[in-house]
Amino acid sequence: MNTERCAKLLLTHENILIVTHKNPDGDTCGSAAALCSALKRSGRRAWLFPNPQIGRKLLPYCEKYFAPADFKPKYIVSVDVADQKLFCQGFTGNVDLCIDHHPSNTRFAAESFVMGEKASCAQIVLDVITCINADLTPEEATLLYIGLSTDTGCFQYNNTDADAFSAAAELVRAGADIMNVNTVFFRKVTAARIKLESLVYDSIRFYRDGKIAVALVTLKMLRETGAVEDDLDDLAGLAGRCEGSLVNITVREKEDGTCRVSVRSIPGVDSSAICAVFGGGGHAMAAGCTVSGTPERVCELLVGVVEEVWR
Predict the structure, then answer these.
(1) Same-domain pairing of 179 and 304
(2) CATH of the domain at 228
(3) What CA–CA distance (Å, rounded) separates 73 from 67?
(4) Max Cα separation, the chain?
(5) Model pTM?
(6) At a CB cut-off of 8 Å and minimum separation 6, what does 274 contact?
(7) Of 186, 217, 237, at which residue does a domain stop?
(8) What's the burial of 169, exposed, middle or buried (CB within 10 Å: 0-12/13-18/19+)?
(9) How many CB atoms lie within 10 A of CB 66?
């Protein structure tokens, strides 16, 4: 599979439904919405599956593309989804084409276009769109910039490379509204988020002389601060702010007795291998998984696995 083949596949089908992943982030939403817009411009009937978990920051960019209740898809495309277990709430069915950038992708779709070397799925979709229509609209450029900037932590994560900067420059030239995106996603937070961060910083535990940092986010913290889902963006980056930390873990308690785990690491320590022990995956330096147990117990389990993988 290559960009041209992927574009051709999309253009030879009609009534296309585009699916995002659960706990949606800027990359899955921005990339999917941009692809949907481009397909509509090419004369195709395309819509997004209305992911019920899309939060208040992303919803204004996506909701205009939500499929109407009577839409009958004939071709289903997933964007930024690495595994069937990650389908968004409410979606069932088989995927015809998967577009993704996770090396851990399980090839669950009938056909897959996976480029694991890309920092974001938005970069792949950018190339596909220019194959379909030869250009970008400012709206599509803005959507893709959301995907690229959020998956690179506003170009601060280790996955940021020359290709990411090159894609960003192309999106800016195409009219991406970077001022608004940067303000919404990186500069402004709610009072509840500020209060939550203070508790998260206080919770951080250090191991191996500070080289491993683990932050706990409990349900009690959320209740005390009034923080909601929209206030929880990029919590995984907080543990890594301490000088000297090389492997950073965020353990977030869920209502169902499990914890959502995010792992960030330096080159040489495989985050994906750590999370794979618990059935998760992702990239070498950024991965996630879900583990049953209290935050304290999950913390112990993760640190033990890190010690094994690091050794």
Answers:
(1) no
(2) 3.10.310.30
(3) 9
(4) 59
(5) 0.85
(6) 263, 265, 287, 302, 305, 306, 309
(7) 186
(8) exposed
(9) 17
